[in-house]
Amino acid sequence: MHLSTQLPLLALATLALAGAAAAQPPGRGPGGPFSLLAMDTNADGKLTRAEFDAGQRAHFAEIDTNKDGTAAPEEFRKFRETKRAEMSKIRFDAIDKDKNGQVSQAELAAAKDDKAGPEGPRGHHGRGRDHGAHGKHGGDDAAKPVSFTEFSARALEGFTRADANQDGTVTISELQALKPGKL
Fold first, then answer.
1. Cβ(174)–Cβ(164) below 8 Å
2. Which whole number is the average pLDDT over 113-134?
3. Where exactly are the structural domains of the chain?
4. Taking CA 28 as the corner, what is the angle to CA 27 and CA 34, rounded to the nearest 5 degrees?
């Protein structure tokens, strides 16, 4: 798969981790179609095209650290490393119930009994799942910087598919109506 078609999946997943958990329906964690709602800046349960575009631009700007208008493989690598470190801290903090900076055997056992387990919530960022810019890239695509248009193209396709009535807004109802794997 061409790198430019894989990268927007990173955008959706990372934005899901970064924001607006209140906009997600109860019991819906990051990953999957509900990750679109992480860009719902006013937390009304609806994602407008303007919110989507702003979220995509903000995410791309976070990756494009040298501000040259493209995201190079090295910038994606550094971004992934930063997000992984953030997720590791979140996971550790969730397990360390007594907040002493150490995980006891009891805390580890409790985490294993918990649905999320010591790896944190299952979803897009679950164990062993690498999609898009998360994975290793081979071939010539790995060396090519990606423009914002290339970065956002596939995510925009997902937004369009989710917007069933084509009114420029994705609602929780529209996301719930999606068949798994259609986003």
1. yes
2. 45
3. 3-177
4. 160
